[in-house]
Amino acid sequence: MNRCFPEGFLWGSATASYQVEGGALQDGRGPSVWDTFSHTPGKIKLGHTGDVACDQYNRHAEDIALMKKLGLGAHRFSLSWSRIFPTGRGAVNQKGLDYYRRFIDGLREAGIDPWVTLFHWDLPQSLQDDFGGWQSRETVKYFADYCGFVASAFGDTVSNFMTINEFMCFTDWAYGAGEENYAPGGNLDRKGVNMVRHNALLAHGMGVQAIRAAAPSASVGLAENALVCVPVIETKPHIDAARKAYREMNAHFLTAIMEGKYLDCYLEEQGADAPEFTAEEMAVISSPVDFVGHNMYLAHHIEADPSSSSGYRVLPHSASYPHMHAHWIKVSPEITYWAPRFVHELWNVENIYITENGCACPDQLDDSGRICDTDRIFYLRNHLLSAARATSEGIPLKGYFCWSLLDNFEWADGYTYRFGIVHVDFETLVRTPKMSAEYLSLVASENKVL
Ligand code: NOJ
Asked: Which residues are 300's β-sheet partners?
């Protein structure tokens, strides 16, 4: 079994602004929908908020030193839109911009390549209040303006931008009635959600164009959590079925971006609720990207089913299917092989990155008081073995970002799930690397699964 990665394979960690920064009221930052939502009683477990989070806004130098020590070559993080434009548009907040300049320069000085996500769900509250957030084309337009501004501000030193992180979580889960209910906590019907999805895709496309115009030499992509389809048995019929399922089950996001159209199966399924769109909009949505960033945590197991009209069936997971502390993470290490393979086979993508992979684990101390997260090491090792399988077959998987550098604010679950390879004591804000940090650090330095 091949355990080695190609030379130049990128190793990184990942975080997002609202989950780690804190400093919610510092230096002129405007509120985002997540500030409002987390302060609404009953929305977040134990009433947690991101007001302080890991306080990275005030401790970024310490975090950069930590990353340097781990020897990871890249760090993926998002910008808080409302820290830069407190109302999402209009006058820039210079202090917010200066913070990101310090952070980026600090990473560079430490030899860490900054990978910047423009939007990781913390929409400026003002855009929600004034226009209904992603229900409106105004928000799309302001997002493109913000992307262009950021690219011209940092294009001299940032080489990789991601427009948007995970579409489903700030569209379906955020605006849909009866869905997971993320900020802003909407109540739209299916037609309404489909228009929000469409606006989000348009924002991505316009964002790509704005970044390119402002920073022509930068690479532009996205970080999408497309549903990962894995053949239940590795035979040709099941593999073909899984590839078809992957394309169709992601028809409303990644497939639309890669192909510039909504598949007939999606439009037929949605019927009168299908989004309204024009050919020009689809062309913008499919503006070419330089890389596809793929977040991945779990699989949908697929079998070929000649008796169904789609030709495939999504299999249920039994009660004893292994999972991590967060039950939704059903362990399927095959995802880091199949997702890159299908992205490459379906759309000829030549630069694929795993922009998130990781898991939550409860703290387990050994006799010496060390956080001994052998469960996370098990999770990472197996996912990395599958990733090495992909690279050894010539699939152009170019890098891996572990979610997450730090324990952080896990959205509606507050601080109850710990995804970090570095422990954060949320009382004292002391950081302590876990055993998995040592593991990833060694893997990165040897460029090999250990
Ligand atoms: C994906 C999201 O991008 C990130 O914000 C979240 O914390 C992780 N998944 C874990 O749920």
From this structure: 229
CA atoms of 49 and 46, how far apart (whole Å): 9
Q: Are strands 10-14 and 74-78 parallel, antiparallel or unpaired?
A: parallel
Cβ(16) – ligand 1 distance below 6 Å? yes
Percentages (nearest 5) of helix, strand, coil residues in the chain: 45, 15, 40
Furthest-apart CA pair in the chain: how many Å? 63
CATH topology of domain 10-446: TIM Barrel (3.20.20)
In which residue are the tokens 């086979």 written? 345
- Judging by beta carbons within 10 Å of its beta carbon (0-12, 13-18, 19+), is residue 276 exposed, middle or buried? exposed
Give per-residue pLDDT as tens, 252-281: 999 999 999 999 999 999 999 999 999 999
Catalytic residue numbers read: 166, 356
Is the CB of residue 165 below 6 angstroms from any atom belonging to ligand 1?
Answer: yes
**188 pairs with which residues across the strands?**
176
Please report where in the chains the tokens 């593991």 appear, as a residue. Answer: 439
Is this structure's pTM higher than 0.85?
A: yes
Provide CB contacts within 8 A for 96, sequence distance 6+: 27, 28, 29, 80, 83, 84, 86
Give the pairing of strands 431-433 and 397-403.
unpaired
- Between CA 49 and CA 409 the distance in angstroms is 8
Q: Distance from the CA of 149 to the center of ligand 1, in angstroms?
A: 26
Ligand 1 neighbourhood includes 356 CB (under 6 angstroms): yes
What average pLDDT does range 327-342 have in this prediction? 98
What's the Rg (C-alpha) of the chain? 21
pLDDT at position 214: 98
Q: Report strand pairing: 352-356 vs 397-403.
A: parallel
pLDDT digits (tens, 9 = 90+) for 374-406: 999 999 999 999 999 999 999 999 999 999 999
Question: Distance from the CA of 91 to the center of ligand 1, in angstroms?
Answer: 30
